Queue: 2 jobs
Job 1
Amino acid sequence: MAVYAGQGDARRSMRLLWRAPGGAAGPGLSVDVIVDAAVEVADRDGMAALSMRAVGERLGRSAMALYTYVPSKAELVDLMYDRVLGELPSEYPVDDGWRVALRAWAVDAREFFLTHPWVLQVSQARPVLGPNEFAMLEVLLRILRPTGLGSSVLRGVVGAVVQFVRGAAGVIAEARRAARETGMTDEEWWFSRSEVFEEVAPDFAERFPLSAELGEEEPPPVEGDESVPYLERDAVLNFVTGLEVLLDGVEAAVARAGGG
Amino acid sequence: MAVYAGQGDARRSMRLLWRAPGGAAGPGLSVDVIVDAAVEVADRDGMAALSMRAVGERLGRSAMALYTYVPSKAELVDLMYDRVLGELPSEYPVDDGWRVALRAWAVDAREFFLTHPWVLQVSQARPVLGPNEFAMLEVLLRILRPTGLGSSVLRGVVGAVVQFVRGAAGVIAEARRAARETGMTDEEWWFSRSEVFEEVAPDFAERFPLSAELGEEEPPPVEGDESVPYLERDAVLNFVTGLEVLLDGVEAAVARAGGG
DNA sequence: CCTGGTTTGTTTATGCCGTAAGGTGCTCGC
DNA sequence: GCGAGCACCTTACGGCATAAACAAACCAGG
């Protein structure tokens, strides 16, 4: 289940997120050191393995030692989230037009989510958060500024793009996770699934003719990287085509608004 | 964090999902009764409160009693997920064109996610699952069939639409959750947040000028329902405009493919 | 230098969680 | 009438977040 922001002291949360004075880095621990360690744990072993004990252990301390610096696990997750968001690139040239820049951003963001897949498990859709979330928004808005879109449409576009990338990255992350955790290759896993599937739903093609048809053809290899496994290839393809559809939609909105 | 599918016996999971013979409903419990109870718990108290003990209690049984019918909590969540997906409408008239139908679907799906917000916390992007997930896909494909789009683009479109609705619903769910858990109204909560915000990030407008500008204006009331609170109104508006952008994108793809 | 309060960490304890293990009694086929 | 198997129970284990109480290290003012 998603991890929610601490309901506790909103002021303290905010001060931590925005690094207001008070979090001095003494000889011992510090918020930053703890957040770093937590991110390492989550990157390596996944969100499920992220426990206060695990983070403490990685720092040679007890779990309780962390509570001097961080009010709760939920707040720690918030800090981790905002922390890694800072890794997103912040500059995209708009010389080639917003479409090129936005596409580049989407690709980078997808890559980011795959580097830190646990981010996808942090409660989606949290409104006000830390500085790096705003930095991300600001980057998107800079890219989209040349479109001249009004703020209402702009908000819709930003939301759609972010959610799309998040979702698409989720599919890929899931494919990777399945491959890793079962120790099978993509193809093996998929094949073993299909076997059970036919046994349990022999009338599949009749019940869901369109779905069956859609699932038939094999996706072509990813251009430039033939090593991408089956399921992931599929997901990447969906990402690419879905993104173009989305960009077309933005373009239509821009055309309607008379910008360019 | 998201709940993952059981890694255990794939055959057993599938048989349960597709209700293969064997799950007779005797005088005592049954898979269906358990799944119902679990959905009720999750609907009322949220995913975090969903424990085997809680479900057992609601049925007047112990937690362990459930394990006769359901191999693990992860499988139970899978069953819950597929169960509620069955609540989605299955028929959309295409007489007025695919755009109208797709928009109606998106609205219904958003409503669905808000009725069962915990669904948003079930591991997104799990590939093969139960019958109702395919039913949902089938509905979307039926709606989109008149476009004549090829299967590659079709997959991208379906993914983009589903992810968009999911994400947009997540924002609204989050707004509602914040309001409920803090006991404040939307406006109060937002106002109290802003106060801390200005204190902690006084240079916000300089650091993030475009974001600041975007956040300035107040959203107009939702047409036909003036009671929708502030934050949610914002989210609904973003949903509506984002959806149109997305639909424009699909339309562009259709036009390019020469269909209609 | 001593002394007392604050800071930083510990250990311990409480009450959750999922679920393995090992009952107990009931029902049914023989 | 008896053994098997089923449905459900209690108990137990290891893990979790975190409250509470305590210890040691630092730093202030005398």
Note: Chain A has eleven helices and no strands.
Job 2
Amino acid sequence: MDRDIRSDVPLGRRMPQATTRIVVADRNVITRVGLRSILERNSGFAVIAEATSYDAVLDAVDEHGPDVLIIDLDLGDDTTRGFKLVEEISDRYPQTKVLVLANTLSEMIVVEALRRGANGYLCKDEVKADELGKGVKAVQDGETVLGKGVGKLVAHSLGSARQANERLTDRELDVIKLVAKGLSNKQIATQMFVSESTVKFHLQNASKKLGAHRRAEIVHRATGAGLL
Amino acid sequence: MDRDIRSDVPLGRRMPQATTRIVVADRNVITRVGLRSILERNSGFAVIAEATSYDAVLDAVDEHGPDVLIIDLDLGDDTTRGFKLVEEISDRYPQTKVLVLANTLSEMIVVEALRRGANGYLCKDEVKADELGKGVKAVQDGETVLGKGVGKLVAHSLGSARQANERLTDRELDVIKLVAKGLSNKQIATQMFVSESTVKFHLQNASKKLGAHRRAEIVHRATGAGLL
DNA sequence: TAACGACCTAGCCAAATGGCTAGGTAACGG
DNA sequence: CCGTTACCTAGCCATTTGGCTAGGTCGTTA
């Protein structure tokens, strides 16, 4: 943990008057412009690049080595891609802090993002203008920033004793997607080239992980968790 | 229809060099700032007020009588409230054009908004910066503006022969919400103080309206339609 | 008044589901 | 080599479901 070094070094000296260099990643123009406006309102922040795709994020971080990456995990169809990206960046570019800025608030997503190395998680609908700057500064200083509602979720996740069991496997997710389309176990089995027993098996496991008891609830929870 | 008058009057004369006066309604600061930035980039647009709640929208429109209201229908917990608001405004303030700016794209929501009097429907993740200004101008001129993906949805809605049957009743929605929570028909019946038969009845009707055959699919579709 | 829509109830039956136990394989890392 | 994880299969049984037909009350609207 290199944030421990900080206590040895006076804060003001490390970056005298430096502006925080930021890359913004969001598929939404309005959000990108808004972020830029809000952040550059107080000097001290400079948005040096914008990205609208997973690849572009990687390129931008690689090229500019920003202090902070503000990213909406949902840059494409593949939700899991966002997580991988966070992991990759916090792995390969530890000097770049990752601040996730999400549309929705889902326990599973928050926890997963933090687990993969995100340094902060804010919710678009929740943040006030001044909190943005503070958040960016904070993650840059090595703190972990959680938005108001986000904190509760994380606490809840720690409280309930499910640590390892909550992640769905690929297969389970496949089955759930077909369930959501209204297929019966038999139909799903046919489509996946497995037996009906296997389908039931995956659904049972998914049920336990999601804390659901009926397929309708499974679909609902998976949707809420952004898995679908 | 007073847009017919337009053909009698040269466009340039009616509003010589006038700036378009806009009210922006969105609970999200970033979006509000972003919109303002993008729109006021070209002079000709002035954001004269912002609102973050349904009541505030009404106040702002009443006070300023803007040319265009740009609104995200999702300003609170109550989804239907947004629709009522659109209806009220297009009823009482016909000179104010309503341009809906939504996060998600759902056939039912688009159709409902337009039915209630919205003059345009754009999707945040879809619009490009220049399209915003054009869209605002267009609705102000009495045109109906639909974003790229939005048009297809509306076409689809017109094509499929379900006009009247697609709207869920309050009761049906109540049942669906409980189904999504994983309750059985019996449990739902108890909670709603009706018989199990009634619950099944509502679900059968909802199934037909949504084109679903299993409760898991009902939940999925209702979610996708933003009803949940 | 009659028609309509939303709401409520009942019963039937085949099919689907949920919840369980009890097996199996293959791949990976300690 | 052993433990773990993901994956696959089988069978049992009570309960739930989907889909149907056939009634009923209200309140609004034509």
Note: Residues 1-16, 161-165 of chain B have pLDDT under 50 and may be disordered.
